[in-house]
Amino acid sequence: IIGGYYGSSIRRWKIEDGQQEGPPMFGNGSIYSVVVAQDGWWIVTGDRAGNVTIWNAATHEKVCELTEHSSSVFGVDISSNSTKIATADHQNAQIFSFSSGIRLLPPLRHILVNGVRFSPDSNRFATVLHNEGFRVYSTHNGDVLFNSGQNGSVSSSLVAPLAWSSDGQQLFVVNKGKITHLDLSKSLASEWSIHDNQHRISIAFNDRFIACAAGSSVSLWDCVSCKKISAIITHTAEVKCIAFSPSGQYLA
């Protein structure tokens, strides 16, 4: 597990015994975003100072630092083939070459970007904006493929969860009180009302089901029928994190 901290450190933890692995890495300010490449070789972080840093996951050495952002970097992602990096601050989203650090597209300017996520095939990426909804872009030329406008507005300044289906045709954006479902093949967005509109939402997604945790309760949704498929699961304390097993049979 990789954790980024307000004190500027990035630390790697072993799941089996909870021990820290290797020395900590240090950014240029509080770490606001962290992502690990799918091959496990690289870590990318975004910090309060506006820097995006690539780290060698094995040696914890700094490989490259990108300084193109003028404000805190709240979102980072790595394409599935580790050739591109997507970044987002409160002013714009940007795409960089992973190997060279060269910016591949002009900054895509819009206000209060909170999160960014590549589609599984890396041909598209989605951004979530505070009070300005979400957008889907072409990775190749930066064209806007879908813009929700304020109908998909995210009311919280916290990063809203984004989830792509494995075929890259469905996008789910979760906010207080609702899930927005975008079918890119039809350019059609719909909203599902969920069980809680007071707390921030965390989600688990496995291509068939979405689990939404809000406050002390959890609801389960079928992504095909777009319907809730179980009674609300309740706990005595706030649920901070949820996950599906790889088989999809169990929810923790």
UniProtKB/TrEMBL annotation:
InterPro entries: WD40/YVTN_repeat-like_dom_sf (IPR015943), WD40_repeat_dom_sf (IPR036322), WD40_rpt (IPR001680). Pfam families: WD40. It comes from the Eukaryota. This is Anaphase-promoting complex subunit 4 WD40 domain-containing protein. It comes from Pisolithus tinctorius Marx 270. The lineage of its organism: Eukaryota, Fungi, Dikarya, Basidiomycota, Agaricomycotina.
